[in-house]
Write a structure and sequence with these properties.
This protein is α+β, with helices and mostly antiparallel strands and about 375 residues long. It is built from twelve helices and 15 strands. The longest helix is centred in the middle third of the chain and has 22 residues. About 25% of the residues are buried.
């Protein structure tokens, strides 16, 4: 199969510097969806890249940031959709960066930039792959449809409405999602699905303003209130303690277990790469792989309250909040997880803890023996 593609690989090698520069240019353009930084400019840049490729491309408005859509006609009736996103996560905390987040410098053979791996690298790689094929072969063997959204990092709140409104436009025989990563040994990975997510903010309130900490003898501290609420969410053995959380989890099929066993992962190298002494619950070998792929999670993404700057400040905060994400597996659902969380907090005496629904998506899984999966 490589021999059949050798002419295209040769072209890519000869034009690698040009393709890398395209990626650097996109990475140097900030596109922080959560902060509305550079989104219009980035959408216009991606549109231009599609048009330079020869695609029939346009911006499709949503109630948020636009979807960049493009289509490259090819031979035959088959249609393949490529999904990526042009938005990135906020780069904070900035003081922990060793490089400018949007500098896209090349050091030690790598491009350092916010969003280079998630997801601008894959977006540009797919455009460059199509470019190389067209330059060498002249015509694609199938029609490519590009769907690039700008809200993936904030939960894709308007993607479903976009899809509902454009059924014919996005109709395809298969879709390849954004991922295209390599493992620690440099081998490309093919994923047949994606975990879902429920992302919330929990808020606790105290006095009507911050007080001097001497008042802590008589005034409730919302930071403690939040900590006590959080402590009810998981058992010491790392199992999620919310009643009903696991009841819809679909066990892996024999075929999925077979593929998991065949998945060649250096678990020890992974542990060393993460810089941890051991995995959760002391898992080793195949159990680490199974937990990573098939287990749902409850993760505290961040906590904030009171004074956290340099030096000391004797303060009794009036507000505390944390961000939590639940990673969901088939057949869990975002809506049910939200309901179970609310019921859990109420049942444990924390009805005063506010839940802010930030975003959520249900999990998805593809049959690994589907023809499109096998073709990839």
């Amino acid at each position: 199969e490589r021999d059949a593609m050798e002419d295209i690989f040769t072209y890519i090698d000869a034009h690698a510097d040009e393709y890398i520069q395209r990626l650097q240019r996109l990475c140097r353009q900030p596109s922080i969806a959560a902060q509305n930084v550079g989104m219009e400019e980035t959408a216009a840049m991606v549109l231009e890249m599609l048009q330079d490729l020869g695609a029939a491309a346009r911006l499709i408005p949503t109630e948020g940031y636009p979807v960049v859509y493009g289509e490259l006609a090819g031979q035959g009736p088959r249609r393949l959709m490529l999904y990526d996103h042009y938005d990135v996560q906020p780069p904070e905390p900035l003081d922990l960066w060793e490089h400018e987040p949007f500098g896209a410098e090349i050091r030690d053979g790598r491009i350092w930039a916010r969003g280079v791996a998630d997801n601008k690298g894959n977006l540009v790689a797919r455009l460059c792959a199509a470019d190389a094929w067209l330059r060498v072969r002249g015509e694609l063997p199938l029609t490519l449809k590009f769907v690039f959204e700008g809200e993936e990092e904030i939960g894709s709140p308007h993607l479903e409405a976009f899809a509902d409104a454009h059924h014919e436009l996005i109709a395809a025989d298969g879709c390849i999602w954004e991922a295209g990563y390599k493992d620690l040994q440099g081998r490309l990975q093919v994923y047949a699905g994606c975990k879902g997510i429920t992302y919330v903010e929990l808020r606790a309130y105290g006095a009507n303003t911050d007080l001097h900490s001497s008042r802590a003898a008589i005034v409730p501290n919302p930071a403690w209130r939040l900590i006590w609420a959080l402590s009810t969410l998981k058992h010491p053995d790392e199992r999620v303690a919310i009643d009903g959380f696991y009841e819809d989890v679909r066990p892996p099929t024999p075929r999925e277990q077979e593929l998991l066993a065949a998945w060649d992962v250096d678990v020890e190298a992974m542990r060393q790469h993460f810089g941890i002494d051991s995995f959760l619950r002391g898992a080793t070998g195949d159990q680490v792989k199974a937990d990573l792929i098939f287990q749902p999670t409850c993760n505290i993404a961040g906590i904030q309250s009171g004074y956290t700057g340099e030096g000391s400040k004797t303060v009794l905060p009036n507000y505390a909040f944390c961000k939590i994400d639940f990673r969901l597996v088939p057949d869990q659902s975002n809506r049910k997880t939200l309901r179970l969380l609310r019921e859990h907090l109420d049942r444990h005496g924390f009805s005063d803890i506010e839940i802010v629904d930030l975003h959520g998506e249900d999990p998805a899984r593809t049959d690994p023996d589907h023809p499109v999966a096998q073709a990839v």
